Automatic annotation (TrEMBL):
GO terms for cellular component: endospore-forming forespore. The gene is sspH. One of its GO terms (biological process) is asexual sporulation. Transmembrane segments: none annotated. This is Small, acid-soluble spore protein H. Pfam families: SspH. It comes from the Bacteria. Its main location: other. Induction: Expressed only in the forespore compartment of sporulating cells. Keywords: Sporulation.
Length: 63
């Protein structure tokens, strides 16, 4: 995924399915370097990680 698409997903009122290494995640915050983001697993709000945005994958739109 690129930074612009990540921004669109974060700003959207719709819910998008995004994964990191095959695991469903939420994007919490995009970093100013435009390369990394803080994410957490959908099933665990407590465990957050900083990841490279290029490793995020948009799976499909959830209605």
């Amino acid at each position: 995924m690129d930074y612009q698409r990540a921004q669109e997903i974060v700003a959207s009122p719709l819910e998008y399915e995004v994964s990191y290494n095959g695991v469903s995640i939420w994007i919490d915050k995009l970093h100013d370097d435009e390369r990394t983001a803080t994410v957490h697993l959908r099933r665990s709000l407590e465990e957050r990680s900083e990841v490279d945005i290029s490793e995020l994958k948009e799976e499909y739109l959830v209605h």
